[in-house]
Amino acid sequence: MHCKEIKLSVGLGVILLSVGCSSLTAIESPEATPSGETLTYYEHVKPIVDDNCVVCHTNGQIGPFALNTYDDVKSHGLVSKAYVTAKVMPPWPPDNTCNTYKYDRSLTDEQIDTFASWVDGGMLEGDPATTPQTRNNNQDGLSRVDLTLTTEEYTPQQMSDDYRCFLLRWPEKYTERKYVTGFNAIPGDLASAHHILAFLASAAQVSEYERLDANEVGAGYTCFGTSGGPVIGVVGVWAPGGSGRDLPGGVGILIEPGALIVLQVHYNTLTSAPKAAQVSIDLKLDDMVEHDAITLPWADPLWWLADSMTIPAGLSDVSHSFSKDITSFFSGGRPFDLYQTFLHMHMLGTKTSLVVERKNGTTECIISIPRWDFNWQDFYEFSDGPIRVNPGDKITIECTWDNSAENQPRVDGQLLPPRDVGWGENSTDEMCLGSLFGVVVK
């Protein structure tokens, strides 16, 4: 439940966002129906807020105010009611008629009515002893943190897009292989953090990265769009609105002794002053898992190799799609179990989706985001377990953009003029990218 004004948002090639509280005059909230009982914070409202709101509305997180206590919620009650009844908050981009997902933050009509009626009824506090146990179904965050790795302090360059890579060495105490079973990134400065990619390099590749790092003065080195060297995988991804959590049960990402995590941070300082900050990642580790997991990018390679994804200036409804048998790309003809997925566009995006086109002609919706918002990107894990993709099945990604004059990013309150846009790493470029996290079936 929070309000925000976006000065400029764009970018995994990804974005800058500026969070503030916008005017409520344009939002008309419907009258809530009284419940007929006395509603109190502790008995009726706290479980809703704790389970769906505090993950963002805690000091230091993306929410512009905290909602941890009765006083917090009461002081922001009218604002929160307006956004809750308008179904703007809590943010939940996926269309739940396409599929269902764990950690769903969307509120039911009954929960919305309860919150609105509590506000209308005077926001009574009640007795803390009446607080029921929350479901904790939607609580993000790691169940435990076994390792935290932190970059040196770095001040982004005064440019619209500054890509910087930092070397995070795997601790020498881990002499045996480990599996990452949970990932979280702490950007340091949310105002300039556009995205974070944690690449994995092997022990044999460390010296090459050390040379890259030594060739530049100061913390890290320039790495526009990539890690700057070879990698063997991806440990984790963060983008605005993302949150850390455990990986699906029984799967993990293998880390061998002596490995290196190359942390690529994309900073955007077009509308925010550069600020010195450190970036950290928290990892949950286990010695064994049932299945080795991998993260696969899903997009047409020609879009970035041949500049064939054109979004002409002035057009308000432009779509591109890409469809391919994933097993012919990555799994050597073996089935692939898809556990969770992530979609990515920049600020001109309006909607995006992933579907499985089965070999027999049927289709299955993986995820659909009908109202794209760059500020809310996350991995989505399926409630009913992994989706099996068999040889001959195709995964189709489709993205739609609005490149009209009225839908351009704002810089210092002014709309940028429309221009032809294509695939690119800059914040004012565009992307149509999926990320598929899963397991190759042996």
Which features does this protein show?
3 domains; Jelly Rolls; six-stranded mixed β-sheet; alpha+beta; globular; five-stranded antiparallel β-sheet; 22 strands; 442 residues
Please give the number of β-strands.
22
Q: How big a fraction of the residues is strand?
A: 25-35%
Approximate shape? globular
**What is the radius of gyration computed over CA atoms, rounded to a whole number of angstroms?**
22 Å
The CATH topology of the largest domain is Jelly Rolls
Provide the succession of SSEs: HHHHEEEEHEEEEEEEEHEHEEEEEEEEE
The percent range for helix content is 10-25%
Structural class: alpha+beta
CATH C-level of the largest domain: Mainly Beta
**Count of structural domains:** 3
Low-confidence stretches: 1-36
Secondary-structure arrangement, i.e. CATH architecture of the largest domain: Sandwich
- Distance between the amino and carboxyl termini: 44 Å
Rounded mean pLDDT is 84
Please count the helical segments: 7
Largest sheet: 6 strands, mixed
Architecture overview:
The protein has helices at residues 41-52, 70-75, 77-85, 109-120, 206-214, 301-305, 326-329, and strands at residues 147-150, 162-169, 178-186, 193-201, 221-222, 233-238, 245-246, 251-255, 260-267, 280-286, 291-292, 294-298, 318-324, 336-344, 349-357, 363-369, 380-381, 387-389, 394-401, 410-411, 414-415, 433-440. It is α+β, with helices and mostly antiparallel strands and 442 residues long. The chain has 3 domains: 1-139, no CATH class; 147-291, Copper type II, ascorbate-dependent monooxygenase, N-terminal domain (Jelly Rolls); 294-440, Jelly Rolls (Sandwich). Strands 1, 3, 7, 8, 10 and 11 form a 6-stranded mixed sheet that branches. Strand 15 and strand 16 (363-369) form a beta hairpin. Residues 1-36 have low confidence and may be disordered.
